[in-house]
Amino acid sequence: MDVVSIKDALAGKVAEGAKVRTRGWVRTRRDSKAGISFIQVNDGSCLANLQWVVPATLANYQDEVLRLTSGAAVEAIGTLVRSQGQGQAFELQADSVQVYGFVDDPETYPIQPKPHSFEFLREVAHLRPRTNAFGAVTRVRHAIAQAIHRFFDRQGFCWVNTPIITASDCEGAGQMFRVSTLDLMNLPRNDEGKVDFHEDFFGREAYLTVSGQLAVEAYCLALSKVYTFGPTFRAENSNTPRHLAEFWMIEPEIAFADLNADAALAEALLKSVFRDVLERCGEDLAFFDERVQKGVVSRLEGLVDAEFVRIDYGDAIKVLENCGKTFEFPVHWGADLQTEHERYLTEEYARRPVVVMNYPEEIKAFYMRLNEDGRTVAAMDVLAPGIGEIIGGSQREERLDRLDARMRQFGLEPAAYQWYRDLRRYGSVPHAGFGLGFERLVAYVTGMANIRDVIPYPRTPGNAAF
RNA sequence: UCCCGGAUAGCUCAGCGGUAGAGCAAGUGACUGUUAAUCACUGGGUCGCAGGUUCGAUCCCUGCUCCGGGAGCCA
After folding, report:
1. Which of A99, A255, A282, A293 is positioned for an S-S bond with A431, CB 3.0–4.6 A?
2. How far apart are alpha carbons A253 and A312 in whole angstroms?
3. Measured from the CB, is A441 under 7 Å from any atom of strand B?
4. Which chain A residues in 338-377 sit with Cβ < 7 A of strand B?
5. Which of A104, A229, A89 is closest to A159 using CA atoms?
């Protein structure tokens, strides 16, 4: 007999009156003196539960069915029929119920059929996928990942798996986690008394990657259109609702392209993702709209059609200077935009995502291309209402002399970047790319307020328990 | 890391210088093709941890741990 997912059963993909086998975990049980019990069962295939109608005549009714509580793992064979009740179109008239696993102490089972705070659920990260909210987050997260791959695939991009362990300590962004097999209690020392990393696994210092960008640039300058999608690590002591020590990042890189093409790609990618998720995740999005953040669905619908606002950094500064608001951090040309400035631009000025372009060169990374004005670089940030910076990107400096000058300006030794410099020596070409924070995108789409609640097992300072 | 706020039953919270309460959950019973069912009863707490003040601390003070909001770093 076929095993049918609850999603398919409720969607009418199974003929009415068909015998089916369904499985899942109990959400609630209600008993009726009419000689039946109603059991709501969820298998994660969709948000909705399937109602099993279990007659008291089953052999194991007294001993087992009446002992079922939230969380128990069960299987039933029965007939899919139109429901006599109001809440659902179909239900399963059970011929038999098999219990795989009871909840051995129902009083302390953390997941109850009621709303829980997300803070509490973080403490039971292994059980929170059994809630409506985390089931929905998990399905939407998956749908977004698939939508991203589909978008790039359609456009002829290659997914390039850049290394997670990197020996270059110069990827440019933030504090790194060290990777080592040395015995911390007994470190090998060289003549100067310093740790001798020649003895370490890779024969040199190694770290977890903070970005695949430099590595993927090499593939860009051969395959033209590439992207990375993988885990990224930052050992920053960041304690905010939008930072993780381990997160996933998408980094496309396109050859023969300038900053405008980069911004256009970012906008097209985001819109494509929004469109796909709206089409495929209606039930889950409706849940987020109702229970998590009002208006997330109409926000996504609006974004699919609206043009993102593109604004030059210099013009953004003027907007902020003339907006009549007093900011805690004063606005002036040359300063980086603070959170309060970004919020004004996205939430009050534009009321939609804003692409800020061409930042002052001294506040941006060494690899960003110096503009003709000599004081700005071809960098862009995509700022989204409610979540802030969701994408950061740039056109890369493809001219070797300028790149070397910028490295020295930032106190970096060009010799340490030989392979990266080679790309500017052998067939260099204008190219551009950006980094999209995957969890920030999931948070934005779902309306979830804390990034720790859109990744299965969040890693943050002091937190890696699961 | 900095600035605020918080930690009381399995969960969400109220409370008060004299050693604790509600709703939900759980258990039992009643009722019912039920819908986070309803009603009644019952069990359940070293009031975050360690010190201090006090005759007496869950309450006041100090330190620590953890959590939340804001900021910085950024994706």
Report:
1. A255
2. 22
3. no
4. 338-340, 343
5. A229
Residue found under tokens 């129902």: A106
Task: Tell me: ipTM over 0.90.
Answer: no
Least confident of A7-11, A84-88, A414-418: A84-88
To 10 degrees, the CA torsion angle through A126, A297, A8, A102? 20
pLDDT (0 to 100) of residue A170: 57
pLDDT, residue A171, reads 55
Residue partners of A294: CB distance under 8 A and separation at least 6: none
Q: How many CB atoms lie under 10 A from the CB of residue A291?
A: 13
Bigger pLDDT: A169 vs A138: A138
Q: Which amino acid is at A407?
A: M
A146-162 confidence digits (pLDDT tens): 999 999 999 999 999 99
Q: With 90 as the cut, is the pLDDT of residue A295 above it?
A: no
Mean pLDDT computed over A182-187: 89
How many angstroms separate the CA of A134 from the C1' of B19?
Answer: 41
Q: At what angle do helices A418-425 and A400-409 cross, to 10 degrees?
A: 150
Both tokens of residue A431? 């190219």
Please give the structure tokens belonging to residue A379: 């960098």
Give the distance, in angstroms, between the CA of residue A415 and the centroid of all CA atoms in the same chain: 35
Residue-by-residue DSSP string for A372-437:
TTSSEEEEEEEEETTTEEEEEEEEB---HHHHHHHHHHTT--GGGGHHHHHHHHSS---EEEEEEE
Question: How many Å apart are CA A281 and CA A301, to the nearest integer?
Answer: 13
Nucleotide nearest to A438 (CA to C1'): B75
